[in-house]
Amino acid sequence: MVDVIVGLQLGDESKGKVTDLLSENYDVVARVQGGGNAGHTVVVGDKTLKFHHIPSGVVRNKKCLLGAGMVIDPKVLMDEINYLQDNGFDTSNIFIDGSAHISLPILYPFLDGRQENDREVSIGTTKKGIGPAYSNKHARFGLRFWDLVNNLNSSQGIENFGGYILPLLYSRNHVDPAENAAMMWQDMDVILNSYSFIKNMIVDGRLFIKEHNDSRILIEGAQGCWLDVDYGQYPFVTSSCTTATGACLGTGLSVRNINHIYGVAKAYTTYVGNGAYPAEATKEDGDYLREKGHEYGTTTGRPRRCGYLDIPMLKNANQINSCTEVFLAKVDVLTGLKKIKIVVAYDLDGKTIDYVPSNSADYARCKPIYEELDGWDELPTENVKYVNDFPQNTIAYIRKIEDLADCCINNVSYGPERNQIVSGYAKWS
Ligand code: IMP
User: Fold this and answer.
1) Is 378 exposed, middle or buried (0-12, 13-18, 19+ CB in 10 A)?
2) Which one of 34, 110, 181, 310 has the lowest number of neighbouring Cβ atoms within 10 Å?
3) What is the DSSP string of 278-292?
C-alpha cells in the first residue's frame, strides 16, 4: 500500500507536520524528489526539528528512504544525521538509493549563483545548487551515489575520482578544474568524509521497494504543485516533478501502486521566488500573516511573500494530483483578521478565468478577483474534536474553500503541535 503527501500550493504548506502525523501508521517513509532546497519542520513537544533531505518519518523511527529522484548534498545530509543523533533520535533506519544524484556542495551552489546572476530576472532559487544538480543529471554527466560505491572503496578508485571524475565534471560545467582546484578539493573532501559516514546506508532502491511490497509506504513530497518544472510558472519553478506523479518517478513505483493522495494546503498562501503572484496580499495583511505564521524560509531564512488563498491554484492542483483528501493547515494564523479575502478567479485581459493558465506570460497578467469573508477573533488552541467546535466564521471559511475548490478538506490543522488538528471522520460531527 502506497500513499502520497503532496503540496498543493507553492511549497511550505506544512507537509512536514502532516507526514509526522500520518507516518505513525506506515512502515516506510520516502522522499522522492528535490534535495537541500526543501525544509520540512516537525514540532515534537518542546523540540522544533527541521529536515532538508531526511523524510520526517525519522522522528517516529520509521524506515526512511531517500529515493532515486532526489539530489542529495552529502554534507547537509551528514549534518542532518548528526543533528538527529544529538537530539536523541535513532538514525539506523535511513537508506539512500544509490541511483540518487549527488548535489555537489561547492560546485553546484556556485553554478546556481552564477546562473541566477546571468538571468534578466533571477528566479529567486534557494542557491542550494538544485538546478545544476538536475541539469547534470539530465545531461548524463551527473554523479550518483553508485559512483561513490564504485570508486571510493579502494585507493586506486579514490585517485581516479579526484584525478579524473571530478575534474571532468568541473570542465563539463565550464569551470576550469586547475584554476579552481581549491574549490574542487573542498568538494572532494566532503565526498570522502561523508562517504565513510553514509556508505552503509546506500541500497538498491528498486529492490528495497520490492522487498517492502507488503509494507505500508508513505511518500513525502517536497516543494509544491506550482513549483513543478512542467506545470509551474516556468522558469520560476524548481527542477523536479513536485506533483503526485513524482512519487513514482522518484522510487520506481508504478502509478497503479498508489492508493491515497493527501494534498496539503495552507489556509492562505506564501511564495518564495520572483515570479508573478496574483494572490499576493496587501503589505498590511502580508506582514500580519508573515509574523503570525512565522513565514520565513526554513532553508534560507528569507521572508516569504504572503498572500490570500488562491482558489484556481487549489482547484487545479487538486485536479492535477487527484487528491483523495485535503489537509488545510494554519487556519489559526488568520485569527484576528477582520475580513479575509479569497482569490476566486483571475481577470486576464478583461476576461474572467477560473484556472491557472499554463502560459507564464498570461499568468503574469492575471489580476485577482476577490470574495471577502468575515474573520474571527479567537480560535480554540486545544481539544478541538470537530470542525463544528470552531467559530461560525471559521466553519464558513472552510466550507467556502471546499465548495469553490471542489475538494474534500478532511483535516484541519490549527497550530504547530501534533495534537492541534481535527481529522478524518470526526471533521464535521
Ligand atoms: P530551487 O529549487 O532552489 O532551484 O528554487 C526554485 C524556486 O523554488 C525558488 O522560487 C525557490 O524559492 C522555490 N523553492 C524551492 N524549494 C522550496 C521549498 O521547499 N519551499 C518553498 N519554495 C521552494
Assistant:
1) exposed
2) 181
3) TTBPPHHHHHHHHHH
- Alpha-carbon separation of residue 347 from 8, 47, 256, 366, 403 (angstroms): 22, 44, 38, 6, 20
Write the CA distances from 383 to 34, 60, 336, 341, 421, integer angstroms. 36, 23, 20, 28, 9
Mean pLDDT of all residues in 267-277 = 97
- Show the cell assigned to 355: 484556472
Categorize the per-residue pLDDT at 426 as very low, low, confident or very high, splitting at 50, 70 and 90. Answer: low
- Dist CA 378 CA 357 (whole Å): 37
Q: 172, 141 in Cβ contact below 8 A?
A: yes
Q: What is the 3-state secondary structure (H, E, C) of 242-253?
A: CCCCHHHHCCCC
The rounded distance, in Å, linking the Cα atoms of 180 and 12 is: 36
Which pLDDT score is estimated for 40? 86
pLDDT of residue 424: 73
Does the Cβ of 113 fall within 6 Å of ligand 1? no
- pTM, full prediction: 0.96
223: Cβ–Cβ under 8 A, 6 or more apart, which residues?
7, 10, 11, 33, 34, 37, 38, 238, 240, 242
The owner of cell 505513525 is 24
Compute, in angstroms, the gap from residue 239 CA to the centroid of ligand 1: 9
Nearest Cα residue to atom 12 of ligand 1 = 272
Integer Cα distance of 92 and 326 in angstroms: 32
Set 12, 97, 187, 310: catalytic member: 12
Percent of the chain surpassing pLDDT 90: 93
> Among 86-90, 110-114, 164-168, 263-267, where is mean pLDDT lowest?
86-90
Active-site residue, 40 included: yes
Helical segments of 177-305, H only: 181-198, 205-211, 246-249, 283-292
Query: CB of 420 closer than 6 A to ligand 1?
Result: no
Q: What is the rounded (10 degree) CA torsion for 20, 404, 335, 395?
A: -90
Distance 426 CA to ligand 1 centre (A): 35
The CA 272 to ligand 1 mean position distance, Å, reads 7
Centroid of chain to Cα 237 = 12
**More confident position, 104 or 50:** 104
Close Cβ partners of 334 (under 8 Å, ≥ 6 residues apart): 267, 268, 289, 340, 375, 376, 397
The type of residue at 223 is Q
